[in-house]
Structures are given as structure tokens and as C-alpha cells.
Design brief:
19% strand; alpha/beta; 6 strands; protein histidine phosphatase activity; EC 3.1.3.-; Rossmann fold; His_Pase_superF_clade-1
């Protein structure tokens, strides 16, 4: 299995709610730089948080890749979602090549848990950071972190 974990691009500081924060122009540029790293990858699904900035990020990647399948929106990828639940949900998808679009602190914890089997040292995921993990199953401690790119 190959799993890519993408944190949304830079977002507005303020909105009516955290879920409504939108990407900035710089955030959109960051996302497109990260999306370029996914060109040619055999993605089967783009799965995203319902928050506006994650939806915008997923839509930009979807368009940049000319991805045929619609973005899948799930409630288990919000900032404060439980890492273990997210891993269980990911396993239930039954797919081999998946891009997750979400937020900190979930993305840092998810990468750490999948690679190291614990949450003691979350991965440093800045805006639009893209982690690539590979392994037989999406289980705690059983995946290898192949790359972690920060678009700046």
C-alpha cells in the first residue's frame, strides 16, 4: 500500500468558524507545488476532511492531476479526529493507493503512528507538507516513511 498524507495549504487566520477558513493565495500555490509531486502516481482515491481549506486543497490536487474519481469527503479527517480511528477507517477503504487531505494535529500524529507505532514524536507537517508512506497494511508501526516534503 502507498499512502500520501497532505496537510492543507496556508489558510486565512480568521473566519466565523475554524471549519470555514479558506486557503490564501499563497496556500493555493503551496498546494499546487505539492500536487506536482503526485503526478504519475497511481492514486485510487483522494479522501478529504469536510473543512473548507481541506476541500479546497483536495479540489486543487484533483484538478492538477486530472483525477477522474470525485473527492471523497469523510468526517474522520478533521483536526481533532482520533488517529487510531482514522487508521481503522483507512483500512476499511480497502484501497492500495490513497491520498488523505487533512489538518494538524491529525496529520502529524497519523504519520508518526503509522511509521513508529506511537504518538510521541508527531511528524513536522507544515502547510501543504506531503508525506509518502509505504507498507503492506495501514497499521501502527508497519509503514515506512518514504518522503516528507515541505513546499515552503
Amino acid at each position: 500500500m502507498k499512502l500520501w498524507v497532505l496537510r492543507h495549504g496556508e489558510a486565512e487566520q480568521r473566519a466565523n468558524t475554524d471549519a470555514e477558513r479558506r486557503l490564501t493565495a499563497h496556500g493555493r500555490e503551496q498546494v499546487l507545488r505539492s500536487a506536482a509531486r503526485l503526478i504519475g502516481q497511481p492514486l485510487q482515491a483522494i479522501v478529504a476532511s469536510p473543512y473548507v481549506r481541506a476541500q479546497q486543497t483536495a479540489a486543487l490536487v484533483h484538478g492538477a492531476l486530472g483525477f477522474a474519481e470525485p473527492v471523497r469527503t469523510v468526517p474522520w479527517l478533521t483536526p481533532d479526529s482520533d488517529v487510531r480511528q482514522a487508521i481503522a477507517e483507512l483500512d476499511q477503504l480497502g484501497l492500495e493507493h490513497v491520498l488523505l487531505v487533512s489538518h494538524q494535529p491529525l496529520v502529524g500524529g497519523l504519520v508518526c503512528m503509522l511509521e513508529q507505532g506511537h504518538l510521541q514524536a508527531p511528524a513536522p507537517m507544515s502547510t501543504a507538507s506531503l508525506a509518502e508512506l509505504e507498507g503492506d497494511w495501514p497499521l501502527a508501526g508497519l509503514m515506512t516513511l518514504r518522503s516528507l516534503d515541505h513546499p515552503g
